[in-house]
Design a protein that fits this description.
Elements: H1 3-15, H2 25-42, H3 51-68
Helix pairs in contact: 2-3
């Protein structure tokens, strides 16, 4: 087993709530709060070590919004 997989297994209990797509409103709320905190930490630094996690969480939130909170169609 690779060292990176061993480290992921070891740390999984601490990060698992942040590293899965939201399936419920509670999951969504946890990710929105985490995204806000990550944005505070990362700021404008696009080379920050956490930028990848910020991008992934942002994509999952956007996906949840599109599925569960679609924008109304003006017609």
């Amino acid at each position: 087993m690779s060292e990176i997989v061993k480290q992921a297994i070891e740390h999984w209990p601490f990060v698992s709530a942040l590293l899965r797509k939201p399936k419920t409103e509670k999951d969504y709320d946890i990710l929105v709060m985490a995204l806000d905190e990550l944005l505070d930490e990362v700021g404008e630094d696009e080379s920050h070590a956490l930028i990848g996690m910020l991008d992934i969480i942002g994509d999952w939130i956007e996906g949840y919004d599109l599925e569960h909170r679609p924008m109304p169609v003006n017609g």
